[in-house]
Amino acid sequence: VQITRIEHINAFSRNVEYLASVDATIMGSRNGHAPIFLWYTLNCKGYRRFQKEDQKCLRNAHFLKDYLRYVGISAMLNELSSTVVFERPQDETFVRKWQLASQGNIFH
């Protein structure tokens, strides 16, 4: 944990387009809550249940990729990931509603 003055944070903060916000973290650092939540989930649900949920997420990602392609939207999916990457939707309301992350015309 680091505590510092705002002027020091502002010196290295930068806008991150796909987050639609300013990133003030040290390069490579992450929120410390994520590993705690993962540990808690594994302990509460157990490995097998967590694994089943993971497989469901992967199936959903493949379904989304296939559906987007079916309706004529270019989409990609790394086989080991649940992140579907696709071209920018035309409807800005849709983008805002679902808080889609973007970089240029690529969304995920």
UniProtKB/TrEMBL annotation:
Belongs to the group II decarboxylase family. It comes from Taxus chinensis. Transmembrane segments: none annotated. This is Uncharacterized protein. Keywords: Decarboxylase, Lyase. GO terms for molecular function: carboxy-lyase activity.
